[in-house]
Amino acid sequence: MKLSLPTFWKHVITVLGGALGAQALPLLAAPLITRMCTPADLGAFSLWLAMVAVAAIGATLRMETAMILDHAPAQQRTCFGLVFYTASVTAVLVTGLAVLAHLADLPALRQLSWPALLTVGAATWLTANMQTTLAYATSHNAFGKAARAKVWGAGTIAAGQLLLLASGAQALGLLLGQLIGLATGLLVARRLLRPPRVRPVLRLGKDARAYLRRHRKFWRYALPSNLLNSLVGQLPLILIGLRHGALAAGLFALTQRVLAAPVSLLAASVLEVFKRESVQEFQTVGNCKRAYRYTFKVLLLLGMLPSLTLLVFSPHLFAWVFGPAWREAGELAQILAPLYFLNFIASPLSYVFFVTGKQNVDMWWQVTLFMMTVIVFLLPGSLHNNVLWYAIGYSTLYLVYLHMSWQCSQNRLAAA
User: Fold this and answer.
1) Which of 51, 168, 250, 339 has the fewest C-beta atoms lying within 10 Å of its C-beta?
2) Dihedral-angle region of residue 200 (phi above 0 means left; psi in -120 to 50 means alpha; beta otherwise)
3) Alpha-carbon dihedral sign for residues 403, 407, 408, 414
4) What is the C-alpha to C-alpha distance for residues 12 and 367, in angstroms, rounded to an integer?
5) How many CA atoms lie within 13 A of 83 on its CB side?
6) pLDDT digits (tens, 9 = 90+) for 306-328
7) Whole-model pTM?
């Protein structure tokens, strides 16, 4: 199958347009937000957001990814019903566990307020359903509508947080603004895309159980792998908060937000198109190496300039844009810039493990990454030393990951 490059770029530009709006609005608001709240406020909010990000993956069982491979209307309706059920159950469980952990005086949750604890389940439910709706859009090539929904959600989050902070809400303003934006984004997405409607149920039906059995590789391998990946992404923030305090957690949170912007803006846009191209090529010729090779080159070119800029100018840029109090966050960004360059390339291409059914290989790599992260951040040393060793270890594993994904795209990688 010959990859249609004009079509590829047309879809990338469509998705990128929405991603630019969705990510540019929070980034434009960030210099104002950092001057209206303290690093400790941002650290507590980021911990809450980390809990939501991890729980939302478990809430979907990664079934929304299967929908991109399975286009039958009846099957997609079943998928929506299944995710609605699992997300609702997860939301209740997460809220209950968060409250119990706080009552038990768990150190990691001491920084969270009662409003944060009581709304973590609601945010999880909204995020999980939004992910499923966007997967539905990808399966139908509705990139433009999905992009508009993302912009609405991001714009509402940014505006809501700024207005609430200006009114004196402080850390609570960050929380409420996020919830309002999540709800707005989901409502707009459902209005534009018209996905299947589902009825709330107390038990999974026969069709839902059959769907789970049919796509069991996603919850057996992709779910643990993605949970580990999300947890690894949030674990440094949690461990830094425990070892170095809320101030350090806030600095690292801003570093993560800025460095993740190129991934969210560009790599995620390429990923949405690579999903379709790789699936079509694999189903036609039995591999997806052409789509993989072209996407790799695109990501390499797109990621080079932002990464070099961050590597050289981060401390000065952070102090100028966010205020002198955030200069140290720029020093952390300088250390992490090479790692995020590799992340920018490897993350979209990891979808090849789903296409070829090698989710188990991806899962074991994630286990190794998780173990490395825990070991590195438990080592004695300063914040900068912990972050440096984290960057070295993670970058090394990403090089291995890229090699495995390339072999996988040629359908030559043996299952682990």
Assistant:
1) 168
2) beta
3) negative
4) 31
5) 33
6) 889 989 999 999 999 988 888 99
7) 0.74
